[in-house]
Amino acid sequence: MSKLTADELYRRTSDGAYALALRLAGNPADAWDLAQDALARAVRALPDFRGDSDPRTWVYRIVVNAWKNRAASSGERARRASEPLDDEGRPELAANDPPVDAGLERSEEARAVRAAVAALEPEDRACLQLREFDGMSYEEIAAALEAPVGTVKSRLHRARLALAKALEGMR
Amino acid sequence: MNCDEEALTEYLDGELDAARKDALERHLAACRSCQALLGRLKLGSAAFRAHAFVAPRPARAVRETKGRELKTILAVLAFSVVVLILVGTAFKPQLSGVVNQIMGAISGAASTIGAGN
After folding, report:
1. For the segment B32-63, what is each residue's pLDDT rounded down to a tens digit?
2. Which of A36, A120, A140, A163 to mutate to test the interface with B (most CBs of B within 10 A)?
3. What is d(CA A20, CA A125) in angstroms, rounded to the nearest whole number?
4. A132 vs B62, residue with greater confidence
5. Do residue A132 and residue B51 have CB atoms under 8 angstroms apart?
6. Positive or negative, the Cα torsion across A123, A128, A134, A135?
7. Which residues of chain A are within 8 Å of residue B61 when distances are taken between CB atoms?
8. Closest listed residue to residue B49, CA positions, set A134, A168, A91
């Protein structure tokens, strides 16, 4: 297999690294720093990357380790991120979205979901991100987050039920 | 089989092998509680997909273009300053004359105003 270039690595992993960092850090400014830091480390370590695994899993693991290091040094991990992701994460419009007159109800629903997402444990948010948007298998998520597969399953289960509860509370 | 809540999450994610999938589907057909729980898991999943989308960062190409634009603007500004200094130096005698004329006019006007008082 040909060696991965820094450019190719960046193209394939930077958006995902940022999205994962946002789920872990809980706010865009820290997420930006975290993703930049992790990508810089990945590029420096690129000559040692064997290339027989998915570069996303490798880079995401670097993101997670960088986040753990920061959290451990600042004591930040003890507190739950409380800032909602607000305008940073706008939903993509789907073809079967409701008409405009349902906009108010939809925005209330969006606020409720984002608040519920912000209240999740960072690792739970990360699991959801990797599953729902990156389409990773439990094994890949476990490798990226350095957690057992059973833990990944439990986190996904708990996180989805928390989001469902937030929506059910509105009805 | 008995109710296995987390197996429903695995089912939703396509993580069950064929045998476990068959067993779960047979159980689901008869268990209203698990049917309801599966519905809630699907709702949670759909909610995250619909409302927790993360806009990608600006592409590196865009940021590089912006960086190039900034460099161009700074280069034009630096060039303009150099040109202004050169022009100022070249026309210094004439500029001195113009400045003296203006100063003279101001002094004259001031004297006129003083005489009027």
Report:
1. 999 999 999 999 999 999 988 777 665 554 45
2. A163
3. 8
4. A132
5. no
6. positive
7. none
8. A91
C-alpha dihedral (A89, A135, A129, A137), degrees to nearest 10: 180
Rounded to whole angstroms, how far apart are CA atoms A124 and A37? 22
Encoded tokens for B55: 């806009």
Closest-CA residue of A relative to B52 is A89
The single residue listed with the structure tokens 């209240």 is: A119
Q: How far, in Å, CA of A99 to CA of A92, rounded? A: 15
Task: Give first-to-last CA distance, chain B, whole Å.
Answer: 113
Name the percent of chain B lying above pLDDT 70. Answer: 75
With CA atoms as reference, report the closest residue to A64 among A123, A16, A8, A115: A123
- HSE-up of B88 (CA within 13 Å, CB side)? 7
- For the CA atoms of A104, A107, A113, A114, the dihedral, rounded to the nearest 10 degrees, stands at -150
How does pLDDT run across A18-61, given as a tens digit for each residue? 999 999 998 888 999 999 999 999 999 998 888 778 899 999 99
Chain Cα centroid distance, residue A163: 16
Axis-axis angle for helices A103-119, B32-51 (nearest 10): 100
Q: What is the ipTM of this complex?
A: 0.77
Stated pTM of the model: 0.68
Asked if A82 and A36 touch (Cβ cutoff 8 Å), the reply is no
Alpha carbon distance A73, A37 (integer Å): 15
Radius of gyration of chain A (CA): 17
Is B91 strand, coil or helix?
coil
